[in-house]
Amino acid sequence: MGTQIKKFSEIAKGDAVLPSSWDFRAVVNDDNLTYFVWNTQTQEGLIVDPARDDLEAIEKLLAELKSVRWFAVIDTHTHADHISSAFELSSKLGVPLLMSSKSPSTRVQLRVSQEMSLPLKAAPIHFAHTPGHTPDGLLVSWGPFLFTGDTILYGDTGRDDLPGGDPSAHYESLQVFKKVAKADALVLFGHDSEGGRVTTWKTQLQMNASLTQDRETFVREASAFVGAAPKKLKESLYENLK
Question: pLDDT digit string (tens) for 167-206?
Fold first, then answer.
């Protein structure tokens, strides 16, 4: 089906409701998701996890959203399954590429070294380290949105069998999400095989068994999982680690 641009109403599930002062677009390519979110009153916006394969759709959105003032381009972690376009996009827009301080990339311009918040008029952006899937996983929360990267997926969690994966750290990161997330937060996942779905955090707590497992069970099951390597593993890591 190729790359698609979807509005919130197309992928919202259950009790997920977008507040009137916020807007949203998801770029969906296979199971990969890039997010454009902004506040309609202040016109502040964020771009999260953009992929190079989706540059045509991204350019289309940028042309459509000319009035939005993008604050930053964020990669929630170092991707192993697709090449990020975050650096190119941040350079084009003249805004910082933001990642965890644990990111090995030399292209990162604004690094999050601890749990912190950055003030914006619409709402502060909250960041916290969430390693496990990768060492540089980052929780990003802004207004109604909660970006999970690959730490949490729809009804599941991301794999820990790729380079840098750590099931014990992943379990602790899930506890960070539980501490930060509000019940009505709109959870935005890094991947979804069903073409993109948005739920509330309350819904994920009810349906996602990984979020309620004890440490021993989670670590045992996560450690036992071994999947096929992503098709673009070597290419993605080569480019994304620059």
Answer: 999 999 999 999 999 999 999 999 999 999 999 999 999 9
Longest CA–CA separation in the chain, Å = 49
Is the pTM of the predicted complex or chain greater than 0.90? Answer: yes
Number of domains in the chain: 1
**Which one, of 123, 118, 221, lies nearest residue 168 by Cα?**
221
Is it the case that residue 21 has pLDDT exceeding 80? Answer: yes
Angle at Cα 54 formed by Cα 131 and Cα 117, nearest 5°?
Answer: 40
Q: How far is CA 85 from CA 34, 50, 131, 194, in A?
A: 10, 6, 22, 23
Q: What domain range includes position 117?
A: 4-240
Asked if residues 122 and 134 have their Cβ atoms less than 8 Å apart, the reply is no
